Structures are given as C-alpha cells and as structure tokens.
Amino acid sequence: MSSQPVPADLQRRLRKVCSSCSLLELCLPMGLEREDVEQLDELVTPQGPLRAGEHLYRVGDDFKALYAVRSGYLKTYIIDSAGREQVLGFHLPGELVGLDAIYPARHQCNAVALDTATVCRMPYEQLADLAAKIPSLQRQMFRLLSKDIHIGQILSGDFTAEERVSSFLLGMSTRLRQRGYSATHFRLAMPRRDIANYLRLATETVSRVFKRFQDEGLIEVERREVQLLDVPGLQRLCRAVPD
Amino acid sequence: MHQSVTFDAELLRAYDISGPRYTSYPPATQFTEAFGEADYRAAADASNDDPIPRPLSLYVHVPFCTSPCFYCGCTRIITRDPLKGRIYLDHLLHEIELQARLFDPDRVVDQLHLGGGTPTFLSNEQLAELLAGMRKHFRLRNDEGREFSIEIDPRTVDEQRMQQLADLGFNRVSLGVQDFDPVVQQAVNRIQGVEETLGVMQAARRAGISSINLDLIYGLPFQSLEGFSRTLETVIEARPERLAVYSYAHLPRMFKAQRQIDERTLPSPETKLALLELAITMLTAAGYIYIGMDHFALPDDELVLAQRRGDLQRNFQGYSTRAECDMIGLGMSSIGKVGDTYSQNIKELGKYQAALAEGRLPVVRGLRLNEDDRLRRAVIQQLMCHGELDYVAVGERWQIDFRSYFADALSRLRRLADDGLVELAEDRLTVTPRGRLLLRVVAMCFDRYQRAFPEMSERFSRVI
Asked: What is this structure's pTM?
C-alpha cells in the first residue's frame, strides 16, 4: 500500500466523498436517505491512485476495511496450491471488494489494479456500527454480499465457451451502462489471459470465440476496444446462463 | 478513389522536395535510444493481451552480398566468406528463440519476409535451418493464405534452388533487375543477363511460386530512354504480378558505395522525369495498375483488389494486403513494429552478435507512439494507401473535430489544392490522378515532425 495519510484539513474537504459521488446510486449508499449518506461521508476516505499492477491488499493481510472502486478497474485473484493464478473477478467503479474477508478477519484474496485506479476506504468496524443504526444501509450490505455469492455460482455452472464469453460481454455491457458509459462500445481493461482464467477457458479459446463472434458480425474488436454489434444475437447465445 | 495516375512534369518539378517515404510514421529518423530492450519487452508482453492478438509478421535481414551494387543504400556487408554467414545464422537462430519467448504460442505467423543484403547469400541448407528454427519457436502458418517471401538475386539462384525455396514454404519472390541495359549494369557493378533473369522467373513459376515481384530503378548512371524502354518491354513481356520502380537517390555522403558512381554520368533531372513518365506510360498501357509510391500490380493482384476494397496497408516492404500484424524485426538493423511501438536492432554486425552472445535482445533504438502519433499514422496510412480521407470517419474513430485538429494541415493543403494535387471538399480530401505521384507531399502536410524539424529533410531522399 503506497498511499500517504491524508492531512486533517484535506480530510474535512473530502468529507463529502459519498454525497458528491456520481456512483452514489450504485455503491454502498444506494437507497439511503441524504442524512444517512452524510454519516457515511464521515467514515469514508478516498485512497490512491494505484498504478497498474499495484496491490490494494494481499491474501493474509489483516482485514480492516472494505473498499469501493472509485475509478479504474481492480482484479481479485488467488494463487492455488499448485501455484496457478485463479481470477475471481473484475471490479468496476461503484463495486465493493473485501467482502469475503469479513468472517476470518483476514483477506482471502489479492486485489490488484488493472489500470490506474482509485478507491474509497470504509473502515469495517465503524461501518458495521453505522449499519446497526441505519437499517437501509444494513439491507444494502446484505444485497452486496448476496450478489458476490451469486457471481461464483454462474462460473461453476457447466457452460460452453460461447455461453461464457457472450455472458461475460453482456455482463460488462450492463455494468458499464449502469455507470453511464456506452453499453455497446467499450475498452477491456483486462488482458485476454485474465478473461480466460476468469471464465475457466484456455487463452486461445477466448481469442477463438472472440474471433468467431467477430466473423459472425456479433462484435467488432480493434485491439482492446470492443463494439457489440448484435446484442440480441449475443443474448440468444447465452440464454442458458442465469442473469 | 482514383486508381489512375497522370504524369505532370511541371508539377513534379515544382514539388521535388525531400520527404519521408512513410513506410512508418513517425519516420525512423524520429527513433530514439531512450527506447531500449526493456521497452520492447513490455510492448511485446502487452501485445499478447488483446482479446484477439494480432497475427505475427517476421522480417529477417540477411546483410551479406558478394559484390557491391553501387546504387545500394541498404545496410549490407560485402564478403565472399561463407563462415560469416554461418556465424550470423547462429546468432539469428538465437535471436529467434529469444524473441519467440515474448509472444504467446497461439499467435500465428501469417507473413514472413527475408530481405537483404542478399538472403540467397545463405545456402539452401542454411535457409532450411533458418526456417526450421522459426518453425520450432513460432507457429508458422501452413495454408495458402500465408505470405512468405524472399528477395532473390537472380545471379545466385538456379532451377533447383528455386524448387527448394518453394519446398521450404516460400510462395512469393522478389527479384532485383534495376535495368537490363549493359552500359547501365556496368556502371552500377551489377551484370545480370536477360536470359538469366527470365530463366529464374520461369523456374519460380514452375516451382509453384504464386507471386513474383520485379524491382526496377530509374535515374541510374548512363540510363537512357531507349535502353529503359527495352528493359520495360522485356519486363512487361515477362508479366510479373508486381513491379516496383524506384527512384535512384544519389546520396554519396550517406552511402559509401554510391561514391563509385560518377555524378556526371547520372541522367539530367529532365531525363530522370522522362524515365519515370516512360515507365508509367508503358506499364499502365500494358495493363498494370499504379498502387502508389513506387508500386504497380496486375489488375487481378491482391494489392489492386485490397485497394478497391479499402483495406490496403502500408508497411516496410511497400504495400501489403494483410490485416495489421505485429512485426518482429530479426537480424542486424531490422525494424520491428509491435503494438504502438517501433524498434530497431543494432546496425553493426559485431555489436549485434555481441548482444546476442550475452543473451540480450539487440534492440538499440525505437519509439513509443503517443495518441497524436497514432492518429497521424492512421491518417497518413489512409492517404498513402487509398488517396482519400473522410474527415467524419476519422473524427468519429479518434473522437476529434477533424477540421480544427488538423487546421494547420488543411491550410497547407490549400496550396496543393490550388496546384491540382488534391481536391478539398467540406468533409473529405481526395488525391487527384495528378497528385498521386506526389502522395508523400500530401502526407507531409499531416506529419507533425516535418514542421518541428525542417532541417531534417536533408536526410530523406527526394520525392521523385
């Protein structure tokens, strides 16, 4: 962790971290009353930037806080007992990481920036106290935990490469649209080997499927830029995959 | 776009200024030693990360020649010592192995080019060893879609050698001719008979080589309209798929071999222009299509079809029909293009081999393109390949307002429009048939470095 402690005067100016944030309705404060958000402002501090490849936390680090991505992308992963990397997820602005560390009070995975990223730090003890006082905050935390578990279920299903890749692209599309970005034209921040690893496919299989989708006119790919040309076509391909 | 071309001597004289050939943008003169091996490794690594990584293209430089052609400006070494070739090959094989480690093994080599020097300085056994080394470490494409070419000195290849080259996987050859006029050949120290050359072409066809390119040069010592027209007649008769007609650039201060040429024997500027006109007139009358810069091709050649479709590419060898590849430069002085970088290997044989002996990649200079470079590269490539620009399409692709971003370029283009090189409409630029021989001048208007370093223009050859 490279970030310096924030001076007190700056901290006061940054107090409105949540109230003034454009991701308010996607992140932890979703559905909260204005005065409740202001209480969150009191405990959330911005942190970063992390450079590409820089870690936010590593397996075994003491669990002190949850983090929300503020800008950029994070990747979470573990190294399995055979020494292989296993990608757990990609996290966009407004999404939380660290939820899996609550019970053992130690981080269960590594979180690394895929490109330049900033995060919001939410000290867990204070957050838990606040959630006990604000029922809607508690509900939102349960929702986020539940969503985290659900993602794992999709990946463990028995799906074809086409189903996995189309579902991945549509998932990115939805998440980006929710954040006010284009749902049909975006840049993939993650290298293809991370996509392959995350989807439990061979790297060349991912490229072969992307290529096939391109040849079939479903997408157009130029370097890391992807354009979805036929969203209904992609939806048909992955109708077996639950949303 | 216009695939026709009009020769306008007055215009060509007026615009006979120095400029880059835009086989790369920014031109190689912008490469810097601040870019080194670590930067190259990082670029190669990142190039594996795209969802669909680009196919690979290998360029291999074989620098040796047994005798010097006096016009030559290539990086080469004159020797008859086969041991030099042997030692070089060993280092080259090592470099291939080091380079291959940087690229994911599922990336296919679509394109392979052996240039020189004289690649056929190496024996066929050595060339087979080179190809085997490449096959061992890279995944070389095997089907008809591959584009594996080799530059051939017709004086070094017979029927049997040609068949062996085809068996090694080469399906394209490029032959140096320059001029068949014996007086010219004598003056440039390259004696090469008509029968010999045509025999090699026939051998290539019999061996199943699908595309033959011939190189001609105009502006050589003692070159005359009569002599060059006989050369052109012979060449047209032989009907190679592609032809390159290069202008001889006499730069004796830069290229030592050129000091052997007596300047007084060079054709006058008027004759030189007339030679170019002759080549264009005869080739187009014979059915060849002018692609751009120095290149002509038969109407059913891929280059012509790609230009009509709008997906022609410019590369270090001229023009290509391939989707953009990551190009790996192998051998001394070779230039690579990986991701948004260019890189060049050490130009001196000893230092090149020493670097590899230490297990280092011999990258000595290069460049990482910024956003502005990438945009200008795309614009210049579009002009060099297709002779027209759609401002709206460029603006959308690069998220710019074309007219304000390129206000400087557009104001410079106005003079070119007045002179009839280009037509400027509200939202597009079209190079006219008269302007097609001056593509470089049009492209120079978009070249940021032309403005920043005007004194550098001395280092480029003349436009014509």
From this structure: 0.88
